[in-house]
Design goal:
Blueprint lengths: L9 H4 L8 H6 L2 H4 L23 H7 L18 H14 L3 H13 L21 E4 L2 E4 L9 H4 L5 H12 L13 H7 L4 E2 L17 E3 L4 E5 L2 E10 L2 E8 L4 E7 L4 H16 L6 H25 L11 H4 L1 E5 L3 E8 L2 E6 L6 E8 L2 E6 L8 E7 L5 E8 L14 E4 L2
Antiparallel strand pairs: 1-2, 3-4, 4-5, 5-6, 6-7, 7-8, 9-10, 9-16, 10-11, 11-12, 12-13, 13-14, 14-15, 15-16
Helix pairs in contact: 4-5, 10-11
Length: 421
Amino acid sequence: EGKLKWDDRVIDTLPGFRLSDPFVTREMTIRDLLVHRSGLGLGAGDLLFWPPTTYNRHQIVERLARIPLATSFRGAYAYDNVLYLVAGEVIEKVTGQSWENYVSNRLLKRIGMSSTVVEPPAMGPERNMATPHAFVDGRVRTVKPFESDNDKPAGGILANAADIAKWMIVFLNRGKLADGSALYSEAVAKELETFVTPLPTGTPDPELQALKANFRGYALGLGVSDYRGRKLITHTGGLPGMTSRLAWLPELNVGVAVLTNQESSDAWNSIAWTVLDHYLGATDTNWVDAYSKVKSRRDADQAKADAATSAVRDTTSTPSLALTKYAGTYTDTWYGDIAITMEGGKLVMRFSKTPSLVGDMEHWQHDTFVVKWRERELRADAFVTFALNPDGSIDQGKMKAVSASTDFSFDFQDLLLKPKK
């Protein structure tokens, strides 16, 4: 409709939008919101809505100005979710509709995705949805559905196979709908799949050599690379216990979507590449076998890394202070308040805006503790290390996930906890 251009500045639509660098704030475009090159670090700011918080979208956008940038603007790729939330706010400002209403009316209804929703149905036996599952403490079990209004623009559409197929056909048809009308133009189709942020091709594991790419980049919400000499467009999706992959080979007019209710990238990758190989006539890779071998090796490597972390622990050390001295209210510039209290002779940590982040703190070594979240399905236990002033008072605390296998959206490492005055 001509209301917005990819290279319009964000502040011209959202005058209150700010990042920590004034230059980046001034120059950030709509395109920049979507291609993960803002200068924010990997997953930066995700703790503002992951796990679900009591912040609303407007409050989250306001807090982005307090997050330090990790790299130069447009200088590096780092996946982020919070700027897609900003993009949702742009849609609301330009159209006068919420992101949910706009997507439902302008996209889902026109495509005919009648079973797809952006507002999850109420909990109960009538809820016609798959149940999410994940490995928790060594076994597969059900986990709670991730339900937050704030994650929607970054990944909050609930769909089924039939509806996803309708969307994939529209994409392959360059925006044309079944009735011949256009959902979006050919010019937009080209923009969507033209990569903006280059990515390293990397070196696949030996068993996965068929995935070796000659080029890789990130386009407008889509990854673009090559697969067996053909252009591949793809993206994955992930919430706790629910993961997915969509992949297209436009030259063959083929697409595949794999939606799962367990966190197994090996499963959905095996299915996706097997389907695409069928249409390519490729038979050189047994993807289930290949991914099984890679997973076994990576699991073993992760176990060794976790064991190495424990091996260097000084179990004879004690905290510098009495436990009560660590208790108090701490504040982080961008997240907000985090309370540490004494309960039953133990320290307990509570994130003020995140109801599920309540954990018991156990001494690890010296002035480092491990906070073990009471909701075990979070799978995100973290170290908390305190630094002291010369007079013995606490200067600051830093956090870090205990295991490298922790989801990157738990960006504990970006927090700097200062005692609240």
